[in-house]
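Shall we go through a protein fold together, starting from nothing but its sequence? Label the sequence line and the structure token line clearly, so we can match residues to local backbone shapes. Would you write everything just below, so we can both look at the same thing?
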Amino acid sequence: MTGVEVKVEGLSKSFGRANIWSDVTLTLPPGEVSVLLGPSGTGKSVFLKSLIGLLKPEKGSIVIHDTDLVRCSESKLYELRKLFGVLFQDGALFGSMNLFDNIAFPLREHTKRSEAQVRDVVMEKMDLVGLKGDENKLPGEISGGMRKRAGLARALVLDPEIILFDEPDSGLDPVRTAYLNQLIIDLNAQTDSTFLIVTHDINTAQTVPDNIGMLYRKQLAMFGPREVLLTSDDPVVAQFLNGRRQGPIGMSEEKDTAQAAREMAEVTELDGLPPLKPQLEAAAGLPDRKAVHRRRERVMRMLPTLPPAAQAAIRQSYTDRRGAASQHGSSEPSWPLSSYELSETALRGRHGHTTAAPPGTRLR
């Protein structure tokens, strides 16, 4: 499996007179893990359903392999859907089927493989998600976390290029959520598929993805590399990603402007910019995630355009990561990455002054 780019341009969706979101534009980079956040009711699950053609947007395009899913024929859409694997909130398992038959269902429905071949694939995916030996159990006989993993195994059996996760951590305790997050990272390391996760879990958003997007007030507030959003001074993004009460978001979507301004002044005085949480790494013995290398190259090109505090926080996080990797004997690449060396021009800020180069930077 290799991930594919998903390019969304000017997407708008309504139900009758109720507009869900408008003019959503983003690109899911191939092979990277992206997270979509937003307050409840902002249409995150609607966005996932639009991506796979279950809902038809009124405007815009969703381009995969040079084909627009919004305007293509039904037969073409049917074929493109085979590129997707979907993990639904509750696993969406058939209650009358055991786990083996649930996971085998897409193979029997969409392929002509023999039962021996089906068994090989199903057992491989069950082993991958830690369910080997549980194939004869019914969904009602297992825990919520196991149902999530069974749903994930089913999403993987057709070797999809794009995997969508609709609130995979809903209903799970923090320990099971941590295990699931690690599983997502490990799967990405092994498959290099494109992942999109809808979640409300702040720890997941801070530690799992390569990219973060946020829906707010019927718009896409921001989308980009994790380092950029985690150091953003945008009031909405900063409030949500830090789980603060203070900010523009209120219990009923939006606060009074004057109240939000008072609260933001209070946050600025007391808190400042929090340090970046380290991103989860693939388990020992698995290949390095290619997505990390691609994302960091992109961040380095963007760095001079970011506010000074964000630049400093990003440099510090990379320096800390490299130091931790050296201490543990990891193969973590030097910073910046060998495939992208910062030139003296790239280190210049918007006002023409040269910022301090991070340790190990080679100037050309």
Summary: The mean pLDDT is 82. The two ends are 37 Å apart (CA to CA). The longest strand covers residues 18-28. The chain has two domains: 6-226, 234-270.
